[in-house]
Specification:
Length: about 425
């Protein structure tokens, strides 16, 4: 006799905290150790938005080995998985990636079934399981198998989401598509998944309320006074897809045209960074570094920037930047360069818009971007065109005002509260399709 028969039928599907709880699984999470790109930001915003609606949320990620293995914040529980591996690989979340993935595949499915799905079922609740990126695809399949064996499969819905093309070739989509609803973050990514025979559902990324907090005007002016203009900002991994080389070449073009640009950037630990700074120096640009250990405050970062002086063409911030410092940079900049050649969604561009800045995006996964309405678009790697767009952003106060106004309006439509409504509707459909009613 199955467990369903013992416990009796579940009530009709209702996605409320009394009847559904959530499990989220991803490599990246809220710890600085666990953030290497947009996935950590996405997952942190998503699970906290769900918790703010009262749902029980269990979030499993490859967390900082020095922090507690399990930590509770209201109805959100953080599980820092694989810490026994991470202790030997302190570089970050993707160090020893395959060892961490193997551990996730082997140890996590049984834990979720025994410690979360079974107690939830006994309490009359369903479980919605959200898995992210190629590293969790096999985990999702194994969770489904164990749920089926335990007689719990119809009381759980599994979604697997693609945020990037990385690792897609390593996924058995015939198996994954059988056990999970496959989603992705943009129409561009949906087309890429179509090349693997997958018909994915598009659910965009969201942003949280913090990005809409206006920086103090005095601090914006204080930051602008530190640098010659135009002030440009670029934040992201040192990945060739992010067109870092184009950005530094555009700085050189602007200098040749008589401007005095400053590019303030924060990259990652990727080796492409050496190529970027090598190219900058070969163009005659001066590069200075600001290194700060730990997690400095906004005021500490500002004070160190003031001590640097105004003469550098490129300022490399080798430090953690708190969200309020990022908001300040985005708002103070004449333009924020997020002009990737390949961008699954473009979360930073939305954060710039919400902060009241002007984003120059690429033209791939940024479904929200509208040229000369809510931002500017550089859809090639020509540094002269990028320099033209920067000059355009500086040319008219009226244009800047309109771009900022429409950008903030666009960003509000991607607030997590709105995106959650789409996600919950898709989860409800997933329960219905598998006969969970």
């Amino acid at each position: 006799m199955t467990e369903h028969a013992v416990l009796g039928p579940l009530p009709p599907i209702a996605l409320n905290p009394e009847q559904v709880e959530f499990v989220a699984v991803a490599f990246e999470g809220p710890d600085p150790y666990a953030q290497a790109g947009g996935l950590g930001v996405r997952m942190t915003g998503l699970v906290r938005a769900l918790a703010s609606r009262g749902f029980r949320v269990h979030f499993f990620f490859i967390g900082d080995p020095a922090l507690p293995g399990v930590e509770t914040e209201g109805s959100l529980t953080l599980y820092r998985w694989g810490q026994w591996i991470s202790r030997y690989h302190l570089e970050g979340v993707y160090a020893a990636e395959y060892e961490k993935k193997a551990d996730l595949d082997q140890s996590l499915p049984a834990f979720i079934v025994e410690q979360i799905a079974k107690p939830a079922r006994q309490a009359g609740r369903r479980v919605a399981i959200l898995t992210e990126e190629w590293q969790t695809a096999e985990t999702a399949i194994r969770i489904s198998d164990l749920l089926h064996h335990a007689g719990l499969r119809n009381s759980a819905a599994i979604l697997w989401n693609a945020n990037h093309r990385m690792g897609l070739g390593q996924i058995d989509f015939s198996r994954l598509g059988y056990v999970a609803t496959i989603t992705t973050v943009s129409r561009f990514m949906r087309q890429l998944l179509g090349q693997h025979g997958v018909n994915a559902v598009v659910i965009p990324n969201g942003i949280d309320s913090d990005w809409f907090h206006e920086p103090a005007r005095a601090e914006v002016e204080r930051l602008r006074r530190l640098f010659s203009r135009p002030l440009l900002v670029k934040v992201g991994r040192f990945d060739p897809d992010k067109r870092w080389i184009t950005a530094v070449e555009a700085v050189a073009v602007l200098k040749a045209r008589g401007f005095r640009p400053t590019l303030v950037l924060r990259g990652g630990m990727e080796p492409h960074g050496a190529e970027v700074f090598g190219r900058a120096r070969s163009l005659g640009l001066t590069v200075v570094e600001l290194t700060m250990p730990g997690t400095p405050s906004r005021e500490e970062v500002l004070s160190q920037l003031e001590a640097l002086g105004p003469d550098a063409d490129v300022v490399h911030l080798r430090t953690f930047l708190p969200k309020d410092m990022l908001r300040l940079l985005y708002r103070a900049a004449d333009a924020v360069l997020v002009q990737s050649g390949f961008e699954p969604f473009g979360l930073v561009g939305l954060e710039v818009m919400a902060s009241g800045g002007i984003a120059i995006t690429g033209g791939t996964g940024e479904d929200y971007a509208r040229a000369f309405r809510n931002g500017l678009i550089a859809d090639d790697d020509d540094p002269r065109r990028l320099a033209d767009l920067v000059a355009c952003a500086m040319s008219s106060k009226e244009l800047r005002r309109d771009l900022v106004r429409e950008g903030r309006r666009t960003a509000r439509t991607y607030h997590w509260d709105r995106i959650l409504d789409e996600l919950l509707a898709q989860i409800s459909l997933a329960f219905s399709r598998q006969g969970g009613q």
